[in-house]
Structures
1.
Amino acid sequence: MASIARSASQSIRAASRRAPSALAKAAVKPAQTASYSLLARAAAAKAAQRAPVQGARGVKTLDFAGTKETVYERSDWPLAKLQDYFKNDTLALIGYGSQGHGQGLNARDNGLNVIIGVRKDGESWKQAMEDGWVPGETLFPIEEAINKGTIIMNLLSDAAQSQTWPTIAPLITKGKTLYFSHGFSVVFKDDTHVIPPKDVDVILVAPKGSGRTVRTLFKEGRGINSSIAVWQDVTGKAKEKATALAVAVGSGYMYETTFEKEVYSDLYGERGVLMGGIQGMFLAQYQVLRKNGHTPSEAFNETVEEATQSLYPLIGAKGMDYMYNACSTTARRGALDWAPIFEKANLPIFEQLYESVKNGTETRKSLEFNGRSTYREDLNRELEVINNQEIWRAGKVVRSLRPDYKPESE
Ligand SMILES: NC(=O)c1ccc[n+]([C@@H]2O[C@H](COP(=O)([O-])OP(=O)(O)OC[C@H]3O[C@@H](n4cnc5c(N)ncnc54)[C@H](OP(=O)(O)O)[C@@H]3O)[C@@H](O)[C@H]2O)c1
């Protein structure tokens, strides 16, 4: 879900500025110090112990509900092997949004040689400095970072990848590797005009979560699931490199896909159930409750609070039937009856959405909107409208009553 928490990237960094963890503090030291390695190794060892591995360590072919798929795992890349593999490389992360922050700090904590390239003195430049990247040492203007890097990790916004491509392309010279976290730019090349040079490996590592989660799971010693893919394999090592880089930036398990499949599923999912769809469902349910005389707190509790605090975590833990079984027989009967009605009503919308992704409509909208010089202000204005909706204002009060509540302005 490429765009999830993009909007949250500032608050993520604000949070990490407020309460830097021991790891984050350690990360401001130069790379390769013992502290990164020890922490990361301890985390990797802990995660390896926990991994539900069938058989020997390594690549696995697993049966996903009748379809066999290959999954790669972090335990194939112990820290020493990872550091050795990239010992002659400089990872140049271009862009410091949600993903740049999470992936960059993780790779740095893993002891790799990482530099950041962003617009000088822009918002990201300041944020990178606050995270301990040092101008002239590990923080550079975009073109300078690309010149210094051997692995160019293009983590600019998708719109910016297209806008900057004419400047960036000539700098991606033979021998470098071009890395993306989304299939967007190369798959929709007719709109983005991003056509990689023929003589470089082009790979993808797309964490299935926000940059915030990429970072927090890494710090907890777990790893995020990521998709990996190869667009162009010049060296014959592209897939291996993608797998190793996925581990370097904090992935636990890597699922192989193609650039096309990744971008279609990702644009579709974030517009659907992950973000847009769920927002629409919450709001529709809330509005009907309010229209029928329910108070804001009752409508919020019955729509959002119970979902996020009680029932969705149960689905996440053990699946839909598990959640059903944890609920009353009254709830079970009603939900079983209404689920197919919602499915039928939603199916045409999802069909329409997938088509809109596949035919490039979603891409073109994103390029136009996020390519504006005022993209941050324009997005914030719309998010402020959500923030001011009664449902979310009621939610703030409900959350303030939680026993573990901490003021949200902090
Ligand atoms: N966020 C996610 O959850 C997620 C998950 C998986 C994959 N991805 C993919 O990861 C990549 C990065 O996404 P993101 O969410 O981390 O970043 P983002 O918020 O979409 O982009 C932020 C970065 O783009 C830079 N930027 C924007 N316009 C620019 C321009 N015209 N010229 C130069 N720089 C510009 C910003 O720099 P300034 O501060 O200077 O404007 C900032 O560093 C994308 O391909 C995305 O699809 C994201």
Note: Residues 329-358 form the longest helix (30 residues).
2.
Amino acid sequence: MNGHLDGGFIPVATLDVLDARGRAVVQVDGVAVALFRVNGELHAVADACPHRAGPLSEGDLVGYVVHCPLHTWPFDIRTGQCPRHPGVQVRTYVVRVQGQHILVSASGRVHAP
Ligand code: FES
């Protein structure tokens, strides 16, 4: 499961890795990435808060906004943007599902504020 497929998308896990809340942490090119399933779609962000590296995978999720468990900074998991601190954002990744396989873009992306 380490080969690059389809324009930089890497198979990182199968759907059964998601826990009861639809979450998992996977490795993408050596970086921990948090997966969140919301309304049937998967979203992926770096699992390190840009403030002080809190594990966003363990944060409370309200709609599409995850709150860092350390100091509660909020991040939209669709865009990575922090509504409380304009200009601050966490890296997001594009996710695809093919059959039972979860694929994540190797390059990731950061949205401009
Ligand atoms: S480490 Fe995330 S808000 Fe401080």
Note: The chain has a mean pLDDT of 91.
3.
Amino acid sequence: MTTTLVGTMAVAAALSLGCARQPLVPTTTPTTTPTTTTTTTTKTDVTLPTSLLVVAPHPDDEVLMAGGLMAAMRRAGRPVSVVIVTNGDLGCGRDGFVRESESIAALALLGVAENDVVFLGYPDGHLAQFGNHALGPVQRVGVDGVCAPASTTIARRGRHGRDAHTDRTGEAGVFTAPSLVADLRAVMERVKPAAVVVTHDIDDHPDHAAVAVFTRRALEDIGQGSLLLRSIVHLGACWPQGSQRRGPCSSAPFQPTTPMPPLPPPFGNYVPQLRVPTSLPTSLPTHDGPERKMQAIATFVSQTGPTPTTDWLASFARLDEPFFPVQLEAGPAGTLVRVGGSAVAADVRCRVDAGVDGGANGCEVDAGYRLVLPSSSSAPLRAEVVTAAGVAVGAVAVLATDVLAGARWTIGVDHRGDDGGVVEVTVRRDGVFIGLVVDPQPTTSTP
Ligand SMILES: [Zn+2]
């Protein structure tokens, strides 16, 4: 059955046509795209995907990113699964088990059952440090309530009442990227989502950026094409409580009658191609859309305190939910490639002579951008993307183990004229997705 819900926004293009999945239709500035001859119109059908997976770094991110979309999916009788990567138990200062329960209660309000929620149980605040070698023990509160060093995954709620790694293998998972990616992969293979909501690489929070990377890797590992709906939670001190980058924040948090504001500088031109109304179907009154999302947010009492509508989290309960979509399809040699856009993959010839301490690491200018690998082993390691003119655009987190002699780094340059003329620069090492940066004011010409 196809549930078609009519929105009121301008059409850009269908991200994916002619396949079995039911795409959401992105909506934004009028433009032409490779996948359709449609240019402008005033209406569009917002078609829900046949199934949805939401991947959240911490308990509450799933609701902030996609509370409205999840509720609409469940109203339409479509399956929604949620993966929460950490328990939000940074150090021992926060009770991860309380936060797990808050997520379960919030998701129940939106129609998602506990059996469709998976907690991976990795440690809050450490995901960007995950590499091939196990991260040493971190302070966590165990099931006995005692704060102690721990080196493995733990969870008490969600599907089967334990963390996904233990549930799947009989043993808790260690803190490595392969373990985390394998856990994500297992969920994806089980639920086969047509669309995946996940954090965005440019999110300020290192856990959020890391989850974006690991989710993309998991999808590529299994060669499973999907509509990736990227969502930003942290960008500057205020957004979306106002559009400025720094405080004091300009508006009241809870604004149920306004859409989400543009991103703060310098990303004002980076336009989300998809805005999903929180009142879907549109016949729903506002008080069952943003208000319902606010009700779900208010469940996270450990985060909001006693007056949730005055907390920053309330600023996500708006008329819509913005996403930066990418339709990924199976490409050559097990890769996933983006459908549409005008991506240019460029091999960059990097000098990586002596690991991270070589001092002369870097890549030659290609495709308008240069990758500068870290020349010191001091953490955190970040590979900078700079323009041909030497202007820093952004950086992706890398691990010492990524910067290996002989590694082949690749920059993919994607001119996204359909969402404000910005450029997304994708960084890979030996074909493995490392992350991407966004150049909001590109000086390079569109090919
Ligand atoms: Zn978070």
Note: The mean pLDDT is 81.
4.
Amino acid sequence: VRLPRPLCVRTSVRTYFVCGSLLIIIAYLIYSSSVAAGAQSGIEECKYQFAWDRWNCPERTLQLSSHGGLRSANRETAFVHAISSAGVMYTLTRNCSLGDFDNCGCDDSRNGQLGGQGWLWGGCSDNVGFGEAISKQFVDGLETGQDARAAMNLHNNEAGRKAVKSTMKRTCKCHGVSGSCTTQTCWLQLPEFREVGYYLKEKYHKALKVDLLQGVGNSAASRGAIAETFSSISKKELVHLEDSPDYCLENKTLGLLGTEGRECLKRGKTLSKWEKRSCKRLCGDCGLAVEERRADMVSSCNCKFHWCCAVKCEQCRKSVTKYFCVKKEKRDGLCFL
Ligand SMILES: *[C@@H]1O[C@H](CO)[C@@H](O)[C@H](O)[C@H]1NC(C)=O
Ligand SMILES: *[C@@H]1O[C@H](CO)[C@@H](O)[C@H](O)[C@H]1NC(C)=O
């Protein structure tokens, strides 16, 4: 059996530590589909959170380890690591709660203990400890280097796992005579993954820059300096080493497309402030013009239920207006009709 790289590393989960051992193969077979599904949900969340940003989580920049490929170490890289690692932990935890694995179930380790004023731990808490341990094993295992970039990635992976823990919700049930709620039992539940996404987007805006790239070699002393620097930063915060490139512009070397041609949003009652400003952010501030394009959309409408059992719809046409970023000089040309 040829094992994938992530499994051939030391880890803090004692049982799975030797590359090539039977346990690793078993662990791999049991968890790999969940790990893959989790990483995918992280990427989907990244695309959702950044849909109206200049950088919109393009597939090409999503390399998850620091060896080979694109070795960027900016704020966006930090987010990608955090949300992927959170996605993996989230999915494993949810799988566990749904009974998908034989070796894990509810976290009832605190049941019976006093949690706070008037409530006890009880019920079935989502087992984040399990999700955390397995995801750490798989995701952190991708980092084999010992340089500042690897340390940055590990820090952000951890921040992602902390985000899942921090957004968990306490759910309670009342007890007492006819629901008088004199005592309650409570347990912790995972939130919707979207909430983890919003939480990490906030952390992204506040990400801390660490100045470590200059003058740090691979000596033991500099490895010590790297470790010391990262350990002084809260594990909940995202960190980066480099400034981001100009995402307005195309840069083939970095695999970036620039914002020309991107759609933006203008009107609409349901838009958030951030979305409403997307044309300014993606087009105007990048030296591009906004172009209005009308298109006819055909969709199902006036659907009626017929006895029994069919739904019949009409096809309705409606005109929709969309907005796109275009080069300024081309605005009056014929090429954009
Ligand atoms: C865990 O959940 C994910 C997503 O819901 C699913 O794709 C995957 O198959 C599950 N894993 C197992 C082992 O059931
Ligand atoms: C692409 O990005 C690299 C690294 O930031 C920079 O050195 C280069 O000048 C950029 N290229 C273009 C065409 O902007």
Note: The pocket of 2-acetamido-2-deoxy-beta-D-glucopyranose (ligand 1) is lined by residues 33-34, 37, 91, 95, 100 (CB under 6 Å).
